[in-house]
Design a protein that fits this description.
Elements: H1 2-6, H2 15-20, H3 24-50, H4 60-80, H5 97-100, H6 106-121, H7 128-141, H8 158-179, E1 186-188, E2 194-196, H9 197-213, E3 218-221, E4 225-227, E5 234-242, H10 244-249, E6 254-262, E7 265-275, E8 282-289, E9 294-296, E10 299-300, E11 314-316, H11 324-339, E12 343-344, H12 349-358, E13 363-367, H13 371-383, E14 387-389, E15 402-406, H14 411-427
Parallel strand pairs: 3-5, 11-12, 11-13
Antiparallel strand pairs: 1-2, 3-4, 5-6, 6-7, 7-8, 8-9, 9-10, 13-15, 14-15
Length: 445
């Protein structure tokens, strides 16, 4: 690649205008190479100071390493922004970063800015035409470099994040769809909590998508536990088959659920729900991005506007342990059955929440859920105009032990009816504090 960078090539006339006429992927790759060059300058200066030499070290291996890194970053930028990068006439200016809404963490931006300053101080001639030639050569030859995953810290563009989340969920759903009409190999995690080979294969397929795109993000999977960097700002909560018992019996209420948290707050979500039934299986996909609304199969959805409990259809769930929370929820089930149009128990938390977001039921509640049960669904409900809280009315986070989601209009009325039961459980010593948070995982909560 260095040979290509020395090759004579130039644009006639205005350099900036010439660059802006190039395809976006070329321009992004050009920028990537320049970022790699700035990192090279930083590294060589450090080396020079260490060796007490006044001359820059010019290790060819470092040039190659950092330039390759540069073009990999450039190629990854093609997938991380839909906004063409803007170039100014000064080939060493860093102002273009302010226009491109890149997803790199602040520490990387600061290092790159420092690199450009060093370039200017040393009067190094990194003409943009050199970078252009290298990028054109790389793309024309279609050389394959490993795709660089987004960094662990700092914001990632909404478009990039939701694309990966939806792809991951649909990839897992393909595994489930392939198995849905086939015999199941069932094992048990407890007396009643079953798991199939499909759970495991779906999670493996989802993990492959996530790790390929975001190699150092933290992942919490129902079957695989914690994987990745616990210092990452991002936590992926994966339920590869929510409603395994329904799946095992061919009952159409199960889904693949993928939610991503940014410092503890839901950032993006996708739930692929299986509908129909044996010999007529189909799916519908729910997605949401924080601040961007909720969608079902690409169409925007909204929670219902029903404002009376007696006109509402409700959903709940029961854990596998027949303990005090289970018994208390049975009482709530009876109470709400008497005062509403009915209470359903479908057996898949992510599906129940999506039904609230879709407006076909008004609310859902349950004790003792896990983060992978809730991370995707709660964001979809909120973005559909609904409300989310703990069952005691407290502010919700996905590490809590209980959840109430509703259309928003009924939320206060439902909490009023649920409060006595929740207080009764607290008086018995039932813990409603955080259930689980990965060690060292940073949150803004």
């Amino acid at each position: 690649m260095l040979k290509n960078m020395r090759h004579k090539h130039e644009f006639r006339g205005n350099t900036s205008k010439g660059l802006n006429s190039l395809p976006q992927e070329v321009r992004n790759s050009i920028f990537g190479i320049e970022m790699g060059m700035s990192l090279y300058v930083i590294q060589t200066i450090v080396q020079a100071k260490t060796s007490k030499s006044s001359k820059l070290c010019t290790s060819k291996s470092h040039k190659i390493k950092n330039s390759l890194t540069g073009i990999e970053l450039g190629r990854s930028l093609v997938f991380s922004t839909n906004i063409p990068l803007e170039f100014c006439q000064n080939p060493r200016s860093f102002s273009l970063l302010n226009h491109s809404k890149l997803c790199f963490p602040q520490r990387f931006i600061e290092n790159s800015q420092s690199g450009y300053k060093k370039i200017q101080l040393l009067n190094l001639k990194l003409a943009r035409k050199v970078c252009t030639k290298a990028a054109l050569s790389e793309i024309t030859n279609e050389r394959k470099y490993p795709k660089v995953g987004a960094p662990s810290t700092g914001p990632i563009s909404a478009n990039q994040l939701i694309q990966v989340v939806e792809t991951a969920a649909k990839t897992g759903a393909e595994v489930v769809m392939d198995a849905v009409n086939k015999p199941r190999n069932i094992t048990y995690k407890g007396l009643t909590d079953l798991v199939t080979d499909t759970d495991k294969m779906s999670e493996a397929a989802i993990l492959e998508v996530v790790r390929r795109n975001f190699g150092d993000h933290l992942i919490l999977g129902e079957e695989g536990g914690i994987i990745g960097d616990t210092l990452s700002d991002y936590l992926w909560c994966i339920d590869p088959l929510d409603g395994t018992t329904n799946f095992a019996h061919g009952y159409p209420s199960f889904a693949v659920s993928v939610g991503v948290l940014f410092r503890g707050n839901p950032a993006a979500a996708a739930v692929v729900e299986f509908v129909g039934g044996p010999m007529a299986w189909n799916t519908r996909t729910f997605t949401a991005i924080a601040g961007g609304g909720a969608f079902c199969n690409g169409q925007k959805i909204h929670a219902s506007q029903t404002d009376r409990v007696e006109h509402s259809l409700l959903v709940t769930g029961f854990g596998y342990e027949h303990d005090d929370p289970w018994a208390t929820n049975i009482e709530l089930f009876k109470e709400f059955t008497d005062v509403s149009r009915g209470v359903r128990r479908l057996g898949a938390a992510a599906v129940d929440m999506c039904h609230v977001a879709l407006g076909i039921v008004e609310a859902y509640w349950e004790y003792r859920l896990k983060p992978w049960d809730m991370a995707a669904g709660v964001l979809i409900v909120e973005e559909a105009g609904g409300a989310v809280s703990c069952m005691d009315g407290g502010k919700f986070c996905v590490f809590d032990r209980s959840v109430l989601v509703s259309n928003g209009v009924l939320h206060a009325k439902l909490l009023e009816r649920i409060a006595p039961a929740t207080e009764k459980l607290k008086s018995k010593g039932i813990d409603f504090s955080l259930w689980y948070k990965p060690e060292n995982y940073r949150t803004d909560l």
